[in-house]
Model the fold of this input.
Amino acid sequence: MTDGPIDVEEAYDSFKRIYPLHKGPDKRRRFLGWIYLSELRIGIVLFILCALTVCLLNFLFEIEAKDVIVEANGLILDLALFGCLITWLNERRSFKEQIRGYQETLTDLSSWGSEEGVLKKVGIIKRIEDIAGVEALRGLEYCELSHANFQGVNLKGVSFNFANLSNAFLNGTCFKGSNLAGANLSNSCIASAYLVDADLRGTDLHCADFEFADLTGAKFGIYTVGQLSSQGPSTYITDLRGAICLTPEQLMSAVGWENALRDQKLACGKPIPIVGSADRA
Done:
């Protein structure tokens, strides 16, 4: 307890560091802080100060008004030109930094397979695709995306090598030219998906729903990796066993369909490969 009344101003001076610049009982500090919080306010204040200084100098040296107007025209043109250029460069840099941040986050979360982790990655992928296009999507190889919802999303040309998309919702998703070699799409719904020219070699499509899926030019068959590793190469083969609503017409529109594992009803006059070393199972 103190022996006398507390001096408010003295107390504030002692502890003013705990206040932000734009807060506290000091009106002058609050006003300066209010200006400091906005780049626009700072620019306006600087413009007013410069204008007052120029007017004062013109009055002291008796400069004619027409000379001031001529110089002002040149100054305004310079400000407009360089202002627009600097603004565009800042926006471009900020945009690139934002996209790079998203890409780094995707890489960091790549192996996080929990429901929360998948939801975060799906949100980031959709955000990148929306603001920067699919060309900015990378680093999705070996990504854990089980039960992901990409319904109707444009993923044209994106690489999902050995990614886990099992039980994913891919209805109407565009995978044109995408690399899905070695990926796990078992039990996924790819109904009405656009898989034209997609690389599906070694892809696990066991029990996937192919209703109305477009497989024109898609590549099926064997996919071999690790030829240079000390343990020798690993071989995978496209697995279509148990596929739902996959018609012979859809199957035969793909390239290398005869090299895929499939049910007997989809033999289509070609021998079915024997399950062995080439099967991921």
In short: The two ends are 78 Å apart (CA to CA). The helical segments are 8-15, 27-36, 39-61, 65-108, 115-132, 248-252. The beta strands are 222-225, 234-237.
